[in-house]
Amino acid sequence: MMPMTVQEAANAVKGELKGIGEDGKDRPVTGVVTDSRQAGPGTIFVAIAGERVDGHDFLGQVARAGAVGALVSRLVPAAGVPQILVDDTVKALGLLAAHNLERRRALQAPFTLVGITGSVGKTTTKDLLAAMLRLLGPTVAPVGSFNNEIGLPLTALKVGPATRYLVAEMGASQVGDITYLTSIAPPDIAVVLKVGVAHLGVFGSVDRIAQAKSEIVRGLRAGGLAVLNADDERVSAMAQLAPDRVLRFGLGSVERQNGAGLDMSACAIETDAADHPSFQLQARGERPVATSLALSGVHNVMNALAAATVAHELGLSSQAIGRVLASQGEQSPHRMAVGQVGKGAGSFTLIDDSFNANPDSMRAGLKALAAWGAGPGSDSHNGRRPYRIAVLGGMLELGDDTMDLHRQVGDLCVRLGLDALVAVGGHGGRLSAMADAMVEGARAGRDGSGLRVFLAGDTDEADRIVQGLAGSHPGAVVLLKGSHLSGLDALAGRWSEARFGEQQ
């Protein structure tokens, strides 16, 4: 964080400072938190009133922890900590983050802010790019998906005088969200990965989703750079909104795209037995570089290309980019994280992608599972691949298309030749209806295929089913994927206690 005092913070958010003497106004602020458990000496605590928990109830706790102030929307008597009174603490958090970034830019030392958006791939791309940029200078990037009106400001507030790069995710659940985020953190470089159907039920149409994602390009600083996926028509069309230069990435040779060419490309893609892609990485005007990914899944090639395009533009060589891609596994939890669960009979390989799900990421995860090759000890029925089990939860916010999209997931499990589908419901209600739809789609498309279909009422039942299947099929591979509210991350946590090794 940039050096500032309690008084400066209050001024930045246009707040009224209460419960503090003149000497306390000059106390330094060392950080900003929204979780009272993270409060410590020098921090400002942002009291957010949520549906279940009200941060104003924890002012006494943060005072005892040494906080120098609290952003509040109502005064709390005898709290023991100076309070900065504002109308809306979340908006005040954004104002404070914007002030912090303005202070950093005022230093006149080089500083670059990269914003990343897209229906899928934001967190993986952010992690890859952050690893690359750390080779060039001090880099701030969030762990996990801090990409909303709370997470992005908290990330921006970690920028200090020595920070050279900030990599920020920008998510949207409605039109206007990214416009707000870019008002806090206007990017020098805007990356758009893909327009998919995540949150389709909220947006109403894919065109509205594209409109929301395009806001990051509209929000570029003067002279800013747009980095766009040339293989997505809606993303590629955003070039007309860019204030200045545009770089494009995609699959194939750099000379393709109707003569327009690509600035970063991947071709000759192959995968190994664990579905780790290898390919030829080529920047415009350079020779191809043989590259491999430590990440699983062909879909991650596009994420790697997006990160590579930005890093190369900022001065990192293609060879150095390749070394990062070959060594950088998943950094954020529950995102295609691969590990071994258990030992001996009944052990299995877990692909934990349980953080969230939408139709695009679900298809990518299932294709990665389908491509998983035979490993040591596999007794696959076809002699070439391990027994592949998809444990799937529901996908939320898909509107009127919800059930049809879930039936398509079940059908895809059949068409990909998977061995077992375990659709996990939630003791009735919407999640159970989604699981039923997946089962319906799988059974309708099965037509004599070998896919075994199971309907689990909850994660406990899913656990029992998987343990039974893994016990009968040594070397099995299990994909765990569903929307966050499906609760599959709890199952991942249970299985993680039995892990004895991690793979990259």
UniProtKB/TrEMBL annotation:
- EC number assigned by the record: 6.3.2.10
Q: Which gene encodes it?
A: murF
Q: Which Gene3D superfamilies match?
A: Mur ligase, C-terminal domain (3.90.190.20), Mur-like, catalytic domain (3.40.1190.10), MurE/MurF, N-terminal domain (3.40.1390.10)
Compartments reported by the entry: Cytoplasm
What region holds the Mur ligase central domain?
Answer: 116-311
Q: Which SUPFAM superfamilies match?
A: MurD-like peptide ligases, catalytic domain, MurD-like peptide ligases, peptide-binding domain, MurE/MurF N-terminal domain
Q: Where is the Mur ligase C-terminal domain?
A: 341-483
For this UniProt entry, what is the primary localization, expressed as one broad class? Answer: cytoplasm
> Which EC class, in a word?
ligase
Family, per entry: Belongs to the MurCDEF family. MurF subfamily.
PANTHER family for this protein: UDP-N-ACETYLMURAMOYL-TRIPEPTIDE--D-ALANYL-D-ALANINE LIGASE
Provide the reaction this enzyme catalyses.
D-alanyl-D-alanine + UDP-N-acetyl-alpha-D-muramoyl-L-alanyl-gamma-D-glutamyl-meso-2,6-diaminopimelate + ATP = UDP-N-acetyl-alpha-D-muramoyl-L-alanyl-gamma-D-glutamyl-meso-2,6-diaminopimeloyl-D-alanyl-D-alanine + ADP + phosphate + H(+)
Cleaved signal peptide residues:
none
- Keywords assigned by UniProt, alphabetized: ATP-binding, Cell cycle, Cell division, Cell shape, Cell wall biogenesis/degradation, Cytoplasm, Ligase, Nucleotide-binding, Peptidoglycan synthesis
What protein is this chain from?
UDP-N-acetylmuramoyl-tripeptide--D-alanyl-D-alanine ligase
Residues binding ATP are 118-124
The GO molecular function terms of this record are:
ATP binding; UDP-N-acetylmuramoyl-tripeptide-D-alanyl-D-alanine ligase activity; UDP-N-acetylmuramoylalanyl-D-glutamyl-2,6-diaminopimelate-D-alanyl-D-alanine ligase activity
| Protein's pathway | Cell wall biogenesis; peptidoglycan biosynthesis
Q: Which GO terms describe its cellular component?
A: cytoplasm
Q: Which residues form the Mur ligase N-terminal catalytic domain?
A: 29-99
Q: Which GO terms describe its biological process?
A: cell division; cell wall organization; peptidoglycan biosynthetic process; regulation of cell shape
Q: What does this protein do?
A: Involved in cell wall formation. Catalyzes the final step in the synthesis of UDP-N-acetylmuramoyl-pentapeptide, the precursor of murein.
